[in-house]
Design brief:
Blueprint lengths: L3 E5 L14 E2 L2 E2 H11 L4 E6 L2 H9 L3 E4 L7 H11 L7 E4 L9 H12 L6 E7 L3 H4 L6 E4 L5 E5 L7 H6 L11 E10 H9 L4 H6 L3 H6 L4 E5 L11 H12 L1
Parallel strand pairs: 1-4, 1-6, 4-5, 7-11
Antiparallel strand pairs: 2-3, 6-10, 7-10, 8-9, 8-10
Helix pairs in contact: 3-7
């Protein structure tokens, strides 16, 4: 199996300006992310950015950089531009690794790419992990996913799905014994042909309502395979507190 990894990296961040270039252990965070990608065994790793400051730093630590347009409605649209600019084939598999995920295990990058490789009817592969607490289940910042018997996504939502009518009719303080609740892990593998179709489309009502772009794919009839991992990847970086937490873990 051969796959590529694209790392979207934007300088602008409302909560942590210049996030990809913030240092962790003496190296920019983006370099840690790049190293995780290289360790996965990907045939090609490219950083996609619209900022020359990121370009300069990335090329300084040896990364290939693809400069993209500054205005994209989603990260998936940015990946479509990269695939076109680099001449990737329609059947090529590309993994989208966010530039603020320095703790992403390389094995998960391989796993999500392999899942797409062995499911030729899927346009996207992604991952999920079991939910263990009601706090997680009822948190709208935690995206939930429900799948069919073959592991294909039926729906993603910020709401607690599936809703166990009988169990939650008694209490919402405990999880039902059925254990059917899964948290979506925001790591994706795409076929390049899908990226081009996606970029040509417009957001659908479901996508706008839930603020989840993967719903555009389901709405348009694309299939998404969802693999299960028992433990979620390490924490991403959105705030100063996240940065300190990740630095401590990498130092350890």
């Amino acid at each position: 199996m051969e796959f590529r990894i694209a790392i979207p990296a934007r300088y602008a961040s409302t909560r942590l300006p210049g996030k990809p270039l913030r240092e962790i252990g003496g190296r920019p965070m983006l370099e840690h992310v790049y190293r995780r990608a290289v360790e996965s065994g990907a045939a090609e790793v490219v950083i996609a950015t619209d900022d020359v400051r990121i370009q300069r730093v990335a090329e300084g630590f040896g990364a290939r950089v693809c400069m993209t347009e500054p205005q994209h409605p989603s990260g998936t649209d940015r990946l479509a531009e990269v695939a076109t600019a680099l001449g990737w084939n329609e059947g090529d598999i590309v993994v989208n690794l966010q530039g603020d995920e320095p703790l992403m295990p390389p094995r998960l990058l391989r796993q999500v790419a392999a899942a797409l490789d062995v499911h030729p009817d899927a346009a996207i592969a992604t991952l999920c992990t079991p939910i263990h607490t009601t706090a997680e289940l009822f948190d709208p910042h935690v995206v939930k996913v429900v799948c069919d018997r073959d592991g294909y996504a039926l729906y993603f939502s910020r709401a607690p799905i599936p809703w166990d009518r009988d169990a939650f009719g008694v209490t919402t303080e405990e999880l039902p014994e059925s254990r059917l609740h899964y948290r979506h892990v925001g790591l994706y593998a795409y076929r390049v042909g899908f990226l081009q179709r996606f970029a040509a489309g417009a957001p659908c009502s479901l996508e706008r309502t839930e603020s989840l772009e993967q719903l555009r794919a389901l709405w348009s009839g694309e299939r998404i395979h969802v693999g299960v991992v028992e433990a979620p990847p390490g924490h991403g970086v959105d705030t100063e507190e996240d940065l300190a937490r990740v630095a401590a873990q990498l130092a350890g």
